[in-house]
Design a protein that fits this description.
Elements (H helix, E strand, L loop, with lengths): L3 E2 L4 E4 L2 H13 L3 E7 H6 L1 H4 L8 E7 L8 H13 L7 E6 L1 H13 L5 E6 L2 H7 L4 E6 L2 E8 L4 E4 L9 H17 L2 H9 L5 H18 L14 H13 L8 H20 L3 H14 L10 H8 L12 E6 L2 E6 L3 H12 L1
Parallel strand pairs: 2-9, 3-4, 3-5, 5-6, 6-9
Antiparallel strand pairs: 1-2, 7-8, 10-11
Helix pairs in contact: 5-6, 6-7, 6-9, 7-8, 7-11, 10-11, 10-13, 11-12, 11-14
Length: 352
């Protein structure tokens, strides 16, 4: 697959990527390589990665606990302390080997340590390959509130090797598929139709096109002033639902993709009521989502708590919740205000 050139860094694919990584390490003469993993990527991905790393530089492993619940400042402090104790300096390199939690948190840690050291993202889940590792967003959660603390910082390189997908569950593959659906609905309808109509998906092709789309958007709007906001489709309500389930002790957590899929159905419904998005296309999106994801029953008694989570969305301005809605497929409108009763009605529609 052809290398994609982002603003200041390349996204390399498959085996070619590791030679490029070795060249970069040699060229920049890094002092120490810190590889950030969790217990899952240490067991399943590190053994695949390390034979491809050709270097005589000192390598130090730093392991954190997996899961969104650990994507917080406390974990960052632990990693900063570990880097310090292991003799990290401004010529150190951070390599993040993992899913979205690892790439988001690792990029943030690297960007703040000694006012910034270089980092490289090696995503190992579909979600992180098509979204989290590309685009320059880093950060952590504040309690259950998603990505409240962070900054824009670009890696030196992103390596996408789909062999790592053999190490993740089908549920995680489905989680990443939600982001590909998002790109299809908002930007390139062929992607959406391919997922809808194909029994056997060409995952390499879908990943490459998804990264291309995200890169095209970010190149035009790196700091999310306009166009890049389309990448939030499904995420405004989806993040609130994800946060609510993360906080609820009596409910099983949803994956990011499961929550975003619900958000996309609901936001399509809102679009039909406010912007005239065709009702048959609302039904089509709902049908495709429910063909991939198990139905989540959003209880009416939970609606008020989900609405409370919405008030903390990082895209809010002056207390107003902003949605990305659709006039049609590939035709969006940003910064839409939606009445509370319509948001609730959209969740009832998802349930119906």
């Amino acid at each position: 697959m052809k290398t994609i050139q982002a603003v200041t860094y390349p996204v390399h694919f498959q085996n070619k990527a590791y030679q490029e990584l070795s060249n970069l390490i040699e060229t920049n003469n890094y002092s120490t390589l810190f590889i950030l993993v969790d217990e899952n990527t240490l067991e399943h991905c590190y053994p695949k990665f390390i034979p491809n790393l050709e270097t005589d530089k000192r390598i130090e492993l730093i392991e954190i606990e997996s899961g969104e619940i650990n994507k917080n400042l406390e974990t960052c402090v632990g990693v900063w302390n570990a880097i310090t104790e292991l003799g990290g300096d401004r010529k150190s390199l951070m390599i993040t080997l993992g899913g979205g939690v690892i790439t988001d948190l690792g990029g943030f840690v690297a960007s703040c340590f000694k006012r910034g050291i270089d980092f490289i993202n090696i995503p190992t889940t579909l979600l992180s390959m098509v979204d989290a590792s590309v685009g320059g967003k880093t950060g952590v959660d504040l309690g259950v509130l998603k990505n409240q603390i962070g900054l824009f910082a670009n890696p030196e390189m992103v390596i996408v090797d789909t062999d790592y997908l053999t190490t993740v569950s089908k549920r995680e593959i489905k989680s990443g598929t939600a982001e590909i659906l998002k790109y299809g609905i908002t930007y390139d309808l062929k992607l959406f139709k391919e997922i809808k109509n194909s029994k056997e998906l060409d995952i390499n092709k879908l990943i490459h096109r998804s990264v291309s789309i995200k890169n095209e958007v970010v190149l035009q709007d790196p700091k999310e002033q306009g166009l890049r906001k389309i990448l939030n489709f499904g995420h405004t309500l989806g993040h609130a639902i994800e946060s609510f389930y993360l906080e609820s002790e009596d409910k099983e957590n949803l994956t990011h993709g499961e929550a975003i899929a619900i958000g996309m159905v609901c936001e399509c419904f809102m679009s039909s009521k406010l912007l005239g998005f065709p009702s048959e296309k609302v039904s089509e999106v709902k049908e495709v989502v429910l063909s991939i994801y198990n139905k989540t029953n959003l209880l009416k008694e939970d609606f008020s708590a989900i609405m409370e989570m919405l008030k903390h969305d990082k895209k809010n301005v002056n207390g107003q919740v902003n949605f990305v809605l659709l006039n049609d497929y590939e035709d969006y409108k940003i910064d839409c205000k939606v009445p509370e009763e319509l948001i609730i009605e959209s969740m009832e529609f998802y349930n119906s």
